Amino acid sequence: MIVVKNLEKYYKIAKRDPGLRGAVKSLFHRKYETKKAVKRISMHIESGEMVGYIGANGAGKSTTIKMLTGILTPTSGEVKVNGIIPYENRKQNASHIGAVFGQRTQLFWDIPVRESYELLKHIYEIPQKQYEETLAEFVEVLHLEPLLGIPVRQLSLGQKMRCELAAAFLHRPKVVYLDEPTIGLDVAVKVRIRNFIKQMNARYGTTVLLTTHDMQDIEEICHRIIIIDDGSVIYDGSIQDIKAQFGDKRVIQFELEHSIDHFVLPEEIRSAAVVIPKTDEDHHVVSVSFSSKEISGAEVISCMMKHYPVLDLTIADAKIETIVEEIYSKGLKGRVQHEEIH
Ligand SMILES: Nc1ncnc2c1ncn2[C@@H]1O[C@H](COP(=O)(O)OP(=O)(O)OP(=O)(O)O)[C@@H](O)[C@H]1O
Fold this sequence. Notes:
By secondary structure, this protein is of the alpha/beta class. The protein has helices at 19-28, 61-69, 90-95, 113-123, 128-142, 157-169, 187-204, 215-221, 239-245, 297-307, 320-330, 338-341, and strands at residues 2-15, 31-45, 50-54, 76-81, 97-101, 175-179, 207-211, 224-229, 232-238, 249-256, 273-275, 285-291, 310-316. The protein has twelve helices and 13 strands. Strands 5-6-7-3-8-9 form a six-stranded mixed β-sheet, with helices on both faces. A four-stranded antiparallel β-sheet has the order 11-12-10-13, with helices on both faces.
């Protein structure tokens, strides 16, 4: 369904010296530098697969998806979606794909949701009967009934995202690209959205490429993940495989008596363990990740207790979230030879 071979995208960025002098100089002698956003990426996604396409900020995910949807033309390499070269046949490509791009909307801002759907029905030439059946199904699964008469700009983020998903799947596309479909949503809405995506895949065999920083999304929806780092694929395989390869990973969460502003690991364990970057401001809690092949949990605990006022601790096994966090911060190559991964 999606075939990508040695795909590359370079951006040309105008470079300017600082200050007014630089601005004036750049008017006459413009210098450019090249940003290699996507470097020789290859992947093959079968019809009906649900694949997580993940990577740290700036890794090149959106650039790849823009090439798959035909918005961007690659610098080099091949891309085909359902047998079509997207950037050469944008209109034809658009008829069999659906997309949700994070915070941006494809619904019409000022008109009620139902009227946006009517417009999409005309744009995609959806037969009336199919349209009614599909919409009735989506209204039920996504609980859209109370929202249909409201203009999009009056909807909350979670309400808008449910309407957005229905719009993306309305014409029963063969492929759907979902970029951060659950960002900023509460747990109940996340669950509803994940169930909807799974249901669409089961019923219509929709191929789904999901970009998200929410590992729970990945774990619940996808069987396969492709991880990119600095424009290149560093892992392509099943979630079970990556867990098996990194099965020795452990995380111990330490609750400290008081907060520590600039926490550093004790020197004795610094080469074998890392501190997981924090997403909240709770400085009482520190999570330490390590490989049980390199150091035992008992050593980490005793060393931490020697240097810090530990109140409590919890030990966790390898979770996809932890594995991915470490791959983002350290890269794969430090742990495992690149060849072994593929
Ligand atoms: N239009 C552009 N012009 C120049 N550079 C760009 C452009 N768009 C993206 N880039 C650069 O290309 C690289 C890849 O960006 P991209 O948006 O594809 O990353 P991403 O993986 O989607 O990141 P995020 O998770 O933050 O959305 C980044 O270094 C970014 O700064």
